[in-house]
Predict the 3D structure of the following.
Amino acid sequence: MAQDIFTAIPVGILLSFMLGPVFFVLLETAAMKGVRAALAFDAGVILADMVFLLVAYFGTNQLLEKIKDEPALFIFGGTILGIYSVISFLKVRRTQYRKSTYTIQKLKGAAYFEIGIKGFLLNFINIGVLGFWLAVIIIFGPALDMEPQRLSVFFATILITYLMMDILKMLAAKRLNNKLTPTRVALSKKIIAIIMMVFSVVLIFKGIFPGNSNIEKRMEEKIEKYTP
């Protein structure tokens, strides 16, 4: 059991530092809205991970093989992400450039729930996450004898490690708050939106040219590098 935990920790660290829209939005949320808001966002992200993990575990091999490389899903996810990024870009108001100070926003309970939903949806529309969890099961499942108890400990360790690494990122991002001027805030929001646009184009490209996308193979290569 201890060996399963030690094997899972590097995978959780890898997952935490995989560059994607979630990575950048998490840092933005922590810096501009505080650690609590970032935790709410991360809770939604982890919930989406758990949904994908359950689909990858309980789904049949034939169904998974069809879903993970379905071009239409990449195009759909990329389109949704693209629309969201464009809206985010356009929502940056010019008034933000004219304010003299910037402080962390004070949020109410409902706002935290909305941020959590945002984290869930932003992670859920990325079909590559399903490919990641499928690759993890394919690589590590046989070594764990596909025993439910060992798999539960293994994946729980991955998610806990992922959360702990994200908390460290949140705390680091929060320290940047005193350096955030309204101009920098507006500029960073636009940069985040542009980054998400890039990822949306990549997803759409994968859908249009499926021959250039092999999620499982790339994930296996990355995970094997961090496997003891």
